[in-house]
Amino acid sequence: MAETMTSKSLPLAKAINESLRRALETDPKILVMGEDVGKLGGVFRVTDGLQKDFGESRVIDTPLAESGIVGTAIGLALRGYRPVVEIQFDGFVFPAYDQIVTQLAKMHARSLGKVKLPVVVRIPYGGGIGAVEHHSESPEALFAHVSGLKVVSPSNASDAYWMMQQAIQSDDPVIFFEPKRRYWDKGEVNTEAIPGPLHKARIVREGTDLTLVAYGPMVKLCQEAADAAAEEGKSLEVLDLRSVSPLDFDSVQASVERTRRLVVVHEASVFFGSGAEIAARITERCFYYLEAPVLRVGGYHAPYPPARLEEEYLPSLDRVLDAVDRSLAY
C-alpha cells in the first residue's frame, strides 16, 4: 500500500511514539512518566522527542523507583490527570506490583464506582533481544489474574498506535505490554482509521484445519508457522487475541468451531499461563466440536536463561509445528 497523508509505514516503537504524541497534543491532562523517558527518550527510544516538544512538566523523568512511579500516577489520576507510566523493563515491574494490584486495580470497586483511575502502565516485555537477567520476562498472566485491570498487547504497528489511544482514553487502568522484540518491525498505520474495539480478537490469516491463537510477540511466529504448514498442504487459521483481559473467548470459540483444533502459543511459561485458561474455557465451550485436545506452546517452568540459551527457551517455529502435527494426528 502506498503511503498517504494518513497512512504510513512505521516501526512498532515509532507507532507508539506517535500515538503518545497525539494524546499529549489532544489533552493537557495526559502525562508521560518513567525512568529515562524524557531527555534520553527511553531505552528503546519509544518516547524520543516528547519531552523536547511538550516540556518537563508533561514528560517527566522519574527516579529509579517503580513503586513510587505508579503510586504517584495513582495520586495524579485522583486529581484528574491521565498518566501514562513506563516500567523500563518487564522484570522491573515487581517493586510496583503492590501499588498496581492493591491500589490501582481496586480503587474503583473500593469507592463503589465513584473513583476512576485512568492510568496506563507501559511494560516492554518478552525475550528475543539477548538481554541480561530481569529484562526478558512475560508476566502478563500475573496481571490478568487481577480483577480491575485491563491487560492488552499489540502485535503490529497499527494496533500499537490505536490500542495506545484506546488505553489512554479508558477510565479503567490498563497494563499495556509492548513486545520489545517487535519494536523494529514495520507496518502500515492509518492515523485516521476507525479502530475496532480494544478487546476484540482479530483473524490475521484464515484457515480450515487448525486454529493458532497468540498475542504480542508470538503472532508473527504463528504466521510463519502457517506459511510453513501451507507448504505441506495444511491450512492454519491465525487469531491475534490483542487482549489478555478481558479475553475475546467468543472469537476463539467461533474459530475453533470451524477448524475443530486449537494450539495456543505464548512466550510465558506454559505452567499456569494464559494458555491454560484459554484451553479450559474452549474445552468447556467446544467439547463437542474438538477433534483433538487443546495444546499449548510456551516457555518452560524455569527462570529465564542467559542470553546465549534464550532461543532454546523461547517457542520456536519447530515447536509450534510439532504441536500442529500432534494435534492433526488425533
Automatic annotation (TrEMBL):
MF terms (GO), sorted A to Z: oxidoreductase activity
Enzyme class: oxidoreductase
UniProt-listed CDD domains: TPP_PYR_E1-PDHc-beta_like
Record-annotated Transketolase-like pyrimidine-binding domain positions: 10-185
Family matches, as SMART domains: Transket_pyr
Names of required cofactors: thiamine diphosphate
EC numbers on record: 1.2.4.-
Protein name per UniProt: Alpha-ketoacid dehydrogenase subunit beta
